[in-house]
């Protein structure tokens, strides 16, 4: 008699998976213990109560262990108890079946010191990765960073078309964010990409021809309010003119200077060179893409359209940018451009070189939202798989809250 076996449920077939644990905290993990393992879920000796017991992971390091799942198991839960060198203890409860499913998310911890730590998960293609991190407040992350560093030495999360968060059926190709300016800053964003249309000697926020229902005064209200509450932070603001000017009696530069003088010039850094963090805490740092007749912020006026380029301005500031917004729907080329610029930032020995990578793009009928929901989780997975304390530069995102832990993974690259 022939017996037909369904391979999806055949208990004799095992599934090879891997568990990777990254210690992104400031303390060594000196011991891991394991409990709650059900032998029904595992095949052979590659199981957590054998491979993970007694493992130690220095701060900034990671371990990867093979874990062989039984073909008949539909889940594989167990608990990892981690002890740190300072005596703190946490527990992570894992279902290793997640290795076969795609997840990019924050992950709950328990244990006596769980409030001091956070975890992020990235899984799929037989690999289940957890990053264990010191809990940080995204609204105050710069307070933990050495102020002697130049801003160009940091890894800075940003947003593309930061003011384009108006949600309307007629704005599906114009909307690039879910969060308001204030909520972006509270979530850890520190570069804002502000596109201002010059109308009647005032600035309105546009994405192309589409008015985004906020004005430059609204942007400044949110920025200056945030900095009053978080004086150890700073905000990089990339400002450019957008769409056609209308009914104006002065230049874009003159109107910008009027805003600065009316809105407290003390809250701005308008120097031509990249500053150290300590020199600009509590300030807005101008990155200028519009023409000016005299010194006004860091001059990024030369900006190639839909391109990847490098330029050194007349003040000696060198900046490297990838901003190719016409993209392939799959997003593979766009991801490669961003990852390549991040790698170049890491390899560059010049501390004052500024790197800016835009992950944003669209390819109609795809919208900025659908493209971001494709590429953002993949960048999150890349950051987890290639953890480093070296700079990644500025990374500007669409829909920066998807996935919710993406901004944090950029922040964590700051030593």
TrEMBL record:
InterPro entries xrefs: PI-PLC_domain, PLC-like_Pdiesterase_TIM-brl, PLipase_C_PInositol-sp_X_dom
Entry keyword annotation includes Lyase: yes
Enzyme Commission designation: 4.6.1.13
Gene3D superfamilies for this protein: Phosphatidylinositol (PI) phosphodiesterase
Pfam families hit by this protein: PI-PLC-X
Catalyzed reaction equations: a 1,2-diacyl-sn-glycero-3-phospho-(1D-myo-inositol) = 1D-myo-inositol 1,2-cyclic phosphate + a 1,2-diacyl-sn-glycerol
Organism: Enhygromyxa salina
UniProt name for this protein: 1-phosphatidylinositol phosphodiesterase
Molecular functions per Gene Ontology: phosphatidylinositol diacylglycerol-lyase activity; phosphoric diester hydrolase activity
Any one GO BP annotation for this protein: lipid metabolic process
PROSITE patterns xref list: PIPLC_X_DOMAIN
Family annotation (CDD domains): PI-PLCc_BcPLC_like (cd08586)
Lineage: Bacteria, Pseudomonadati, Myxococcota, Polyangia, Nannocystales
Keywords: Lyase
Top EC class for this record: lyase
Gene transcribed to yield this protein: plc
All residue ranges annotated as the Phosphatidylinositol-specific phospholipase C X domain in the record: 148-289
């Amino acid at each position: 008699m022939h017996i037909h076996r369904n391979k999806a449920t055949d208990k004799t077939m095992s599934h090879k998976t891997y568990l990777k644990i990254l210690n992104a905290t400031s303390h060594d993990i000196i011991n891991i213990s394991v409990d709650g393992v059900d032998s029904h879920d595992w095949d052979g000796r590659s199981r957590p109560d054998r491979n993970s017991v007694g493992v130690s992971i220095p701060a900034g390091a990671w371990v990867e262990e093979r874990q062989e799942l039984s073909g008949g198991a539909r889940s594989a839960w167990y608990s990892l108890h981690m002890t740190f060198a300072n005596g703190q203890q946490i527990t992570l409860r894992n279902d290793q079946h997640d290795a076969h499913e795609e997840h990019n998310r924050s992950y709950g911890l328990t244990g006596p010191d769980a409030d001091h730590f956070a975890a992020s998960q990235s899984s799929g293609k037989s690999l289940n990765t957890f990053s264990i991190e010191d809990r940080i407040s995204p609204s105050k992350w710069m307070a933990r960073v050495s102020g002697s560093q130049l801003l160009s030495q940091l890894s800075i999360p940003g947003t593309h078309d930061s003011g384009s968060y108006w949600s309307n059926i007629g704005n599906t190709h114009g909307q690039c964010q879910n969060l308001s300016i204030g909520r972006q800053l509270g979530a850890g964003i520190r570069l804002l990409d502000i596109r201002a249309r010059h109308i009647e000697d005032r600035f309105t926020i546009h994405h192309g021809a589409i008015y985004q229902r906020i004005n430059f005064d609204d942007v400044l209200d949110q920025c200056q309010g945030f900095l009053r509450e978080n004086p150890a932070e700073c905000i990089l603001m990339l400002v450019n003119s957008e769409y056609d000017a209308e009914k104006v009696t002065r230049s874009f530069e003159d109107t910008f200077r009027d805003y600065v003088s009316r809105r407290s010039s003390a809250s701005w850094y308008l120097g031509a060179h990249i500053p150290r963090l300590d020199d600009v805490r509590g300030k807005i740092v101008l990155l200028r893409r519009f023409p000016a007749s005299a010194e006004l912020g860091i001059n990024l006026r030369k900006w190639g359209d839909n391109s990847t380029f490098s330029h050194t301005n007349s003040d000696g500031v060198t900046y490297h940018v990838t901003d190719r917004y016409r993209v392939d729907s799959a997003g593979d080329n766009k991801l490669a451009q961003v990852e390549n610029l991040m790698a170049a930032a890491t390899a560059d020995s010049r501390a004052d070189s500024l790197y800016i990578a835009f992950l944003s793009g669209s390819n109609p009928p795809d919208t900025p939202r659908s493209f971001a929901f494709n590429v953002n989780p993949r960048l999150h997975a890349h950051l987890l798989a290639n953890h480093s304390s070296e700079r990644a530069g500025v990374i500007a995102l669409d829909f920066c809250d998807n996935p919710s832990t993406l901004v944090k993974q950029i922040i964590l690259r700051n030593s």
